[in-house]
């Protein structure tokens, strides 16, 4: 814990100097002594201290000050620091006010001026109060604090981003924590936009976009140079594998990721089938290992920056980023994966990110301790999500359109679900309606076979209903199938003919798209097996094919 603070406030400079001098003499080793010449000046300092989460052990304040009395100051300061000890410095004439404030603000002591000799009249009193404070005060959290409401979607996105970047933070729910609400209001007014983030250096961010947040927490959000041998779009398993192999094999390599690194795998609570991890590995852990490895080998990873468009001007390939910058390269690897399919239920949008989540079990489960939650879907991701949620929620109900999980979910997960007492599966069901004031309170479930509907209480829905490819950025540039997945290699050869406008006198390489030098790997490809190992394998193979391509440029 940082050295706690003793703050003394007096409008008369000679009194302020005298008390500060005596405090320094006795407490300097263990406490920081701060002084202020008025209640207002002190309140500003108190707000700043709270933003940094610095501990304040004691306020020693003169009662008689012109613009704000000592008691008035303490009343305000205590909203932010309720545990701090409060001592009023009074003249004989003010004792009535001091006595009244013992009840009004729970004053700990009033000290009569003058306090000489301090060894007898000051230190024993303060020693006693400070040892009491030290014995009872909770150790303040000295990392990032995120203040918001549980139902606020933007609070959810911030928490999700920090969790996925593995940056620890403390969550302050302003609906439950009065002190947190005061702190938020002191930083951004009475009707604050949420969330408000407080950093240990005393700075704040109010409802930041991902770029501002990523930059503030020290992530790389800008490329270091304008040209690379290899630009990789998307930092899921395929992109990160491409980065590890590209950088280790001497290519100047950059990965551009629109959110946090890790892709879908990064949101998985436990990946049990990835080679070499007999106990399974969490997506967060796998991501941390992969990003560290890629960076150690020399790859740049830029996060919170999306690629918004591609163009080709032979022999170079160009990508445009959200901030308008353009980067160029010899070879491009598209590993943008897939994104979750949205639940087509009327009226759900206001709840998304607040009590209806796409994936996100890992970051939100803890807030549903003892509550009833629903999981929609019947594939492995739904099973993993349900298992994770079952550690916190009192009841997890899986809603699945099919009549058996056997064809869509791995056997090990079905066994785990069957062996978990607080998970039930409702087959042949779908959600047809949602209801709630501010946050989800009830859902309507329809049985597809009988046609019957029922409305039941629900605290949250976690949706895992498949995926659509993230390929909007390629437009007409590269060939895609009807669903939007990218064709590569031999899939591009139709009736023995190479793709339209194809110039090289060779067929497209295994993972090459219909544009030479633009490759695709992972879930984004047409006809691929969607697995972590498969994506990693393709990312690695793509790099060896890129070497082949580069020999021809
Ligand atoms: C909850 C869950 C659990 C899973 N569990 C398992 C499991 O246990 N075992 C298993 O083998 N597989 C599992 N999978 C599947 C596995 O995670 C995927 O097959 C794998 O992540 C695919 O990797 P990828 O790199 O191809 O794409 P993704 O993981 O989808 O990564 C693509 C990345 O590209 C980024 N991106 C997209 N568009 C842009 C753009 N325009 N600009 C910049 N970046 C962009 C995305 O933000 C994302 O980070 C699971 C999937 C989910 C959702």
Give a structural overview.
The chain has 553 residues and is α/β, with parallel strands linked by helices. The protein contains 16 helices and 26 strands. Strands 10, 11, 12, 13, 14, 15 and 26 form a 7-stranded mixed sheet that branches. Strands 2-1-3-4-5 form a 5-stranded parallel sheet, sandwiched between helices. Strands 17-24-18-19-20 form a 5-stranded parallel sheet, covered by helices on one side. A hairpin with a 5-residue loop joins β8 and β9. α10 crosses α16. The longest helix has 20 residues. The two termini are 58 Å apart. The mean pLDDT is 93. Bound molecules: flavin-adenine dinucleotide (FAD). Flavin-adenine dinucleotide binds next to α10, α11, α14 and α16.
Essential attributes:
seven-stranded mixed sheet; 553 residues; five-stranded parallel sheet; binds flavin-adenine dinucleotide; alpha/beta
Concise summary:
The protein is α/β, with parallel strands linked by helices.
Which secondary structure elements does this structure contain, and how are they paired or packed?
Blueprint: E1 5-9, H1 13-27, E2 32-36, H2 39-52, E3 56-62, H3 70-80, E4 85-90, H4 95-104, E5 109-112, H5 118-121, H6 123-136, E6 144-148, H7 153-164, E7 169-173, H8 178-188, E8 196-198, E9 204-206, H9 210-216, E10 227-233, H10 237-248, E11 253-256, H11 263-266, H12 283-296, E12 300-302, E13 307-313, E14 316-321, E15 326-334, E16 338-340, E17 356-358, H13 361-364, E18 372-376, H14 380-389, E19 395-399, H15 411-418, E20 423-426, E21 429-435, E22 442-447, E23 453-457, E24 460-463, E25 467-469, E26 518-520, H16 532-551
Parallel strand pairs: 1-2, 1-3, 3-4, 4-5, 6-7, 10-11, 10-15, 11-12, 15-26, 17-24, 18-19, 18-24, 19-20
Antiparallel strand pairs: 6-8, 8-9, 13-14, 14-15, 16-25, 21-22, 22-23
Helix pairs in contact: 2-3, 10-12, 10-16, 14-15
The protein binds flavin-adenine dinucleotide.
The site of flavin-adenine dinucleotide has 39 residues, from α10, α11, α14 and α16.
């Amino acid at each position: 814990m940082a050295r706690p603070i003793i703050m003394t406030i007096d409008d008369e400079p000679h009194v302020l100097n005298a008390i500060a001098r005596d405090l320094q003499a006795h407490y300097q080793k263990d406490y920081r002594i701060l002084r202020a010449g008025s209640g207002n000046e002190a309140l500003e300092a108190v707000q700043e201290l709270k933003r940094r989460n610095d501990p304040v052990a004691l306020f020693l304040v003169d009662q008689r000050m012109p613009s704000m009395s000592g008691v008035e100051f303490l009343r305000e300061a205590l909203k932010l620091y309720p545990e701090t000890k409060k001592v009023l410095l009074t003249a004989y004439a003010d004792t009535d006010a001091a006595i009244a404030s013992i009840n009004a603000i729970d004053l700990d002591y009033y000290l009569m001026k003058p306090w000489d000799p301090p060894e007898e009249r000051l230190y024993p009193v303060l020693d006693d109060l400070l040892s009491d404070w030290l014995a009872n005060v909770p150790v303040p959290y000295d990392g990032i604090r995120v203040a918001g409401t549980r139902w606020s979607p933007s609070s959810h996105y911030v928490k999700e981003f920090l969790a996925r970047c593995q940056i620890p933070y403390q969550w302050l729910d302003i609906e439950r924590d009065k002190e947190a609400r005061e702190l938020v209001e002191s930083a951004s007014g009475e009707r604050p936009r949420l969330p408000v983030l407080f950093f240990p250096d005393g700075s704040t961010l109010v409802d930041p976009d991902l770029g501002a947040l990523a930059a503030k927490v020290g992530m790389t959000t800008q490329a270091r140079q304008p040209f690379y041998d290899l630009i990789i779009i998307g930092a899921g398993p395929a992109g990160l594998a491409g980065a590890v192999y590209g950088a280790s094999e001497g290519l100047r390599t950059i990965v551009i990721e629109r959110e946090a690194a890790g892709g879908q795998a990064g949101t998985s609570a436990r990946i049990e089938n990835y080679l070499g991890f007999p106990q399974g590995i969490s997506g967060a852990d796998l991501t941390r290992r992969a990003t560290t490895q890629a960076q150690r080998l020399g790859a740049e990873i830029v996060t919170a920056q999306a690629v918004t468009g591609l163009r080709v001007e032979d022999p170079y390939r160009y990508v445009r980023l959200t901030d308008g910058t353009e980067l160029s390269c010899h070879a491009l690897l598209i590993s943008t994966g897939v994104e979750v399919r949205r639940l087509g239920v009327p009226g759900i949008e206001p709840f998304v990110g607040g009590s209806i989540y796409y994936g996100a079990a890992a970051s939100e489960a803890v807030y549903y301790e003892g509550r009833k939650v629903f999981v929609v879907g019947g594939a492995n991701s739904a099973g993993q999500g349900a298992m994770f949620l079952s550690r916190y929620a009192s009841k997890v109900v899986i809603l699945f359109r099919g009549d058996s999980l056997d064809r869509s979910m791995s056997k090990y997960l079905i066994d785990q679900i069957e062996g978990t007492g607080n998970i039930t599966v409702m087959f042949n069901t779908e959600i047809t309606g949602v209801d709630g004031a501010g946050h989800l309170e009830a859902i309507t479930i329809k049985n597809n076979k009988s046609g019957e509907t029922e409305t039941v209480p629900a605290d949250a829905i976690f949706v895992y209903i498949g995926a659509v490819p993230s390929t909007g950025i390629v437009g007409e540039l590269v060939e895609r199938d009807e669903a939007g997945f990218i064709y590569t290699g031999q899939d591009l050869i139709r009736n023995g003919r190479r793709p339209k406008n194809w110039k090289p006198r060779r067929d497209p390489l295994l993972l090459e798209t219909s544009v030479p030098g633009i490759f695709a790997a992972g879930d984004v490809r047409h006809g691929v097996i969607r697995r972590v190992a498969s994506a990693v394998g393709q990312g690695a193979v793509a790099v060896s094919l890129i070497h082949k391509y580069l020999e021809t440029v």
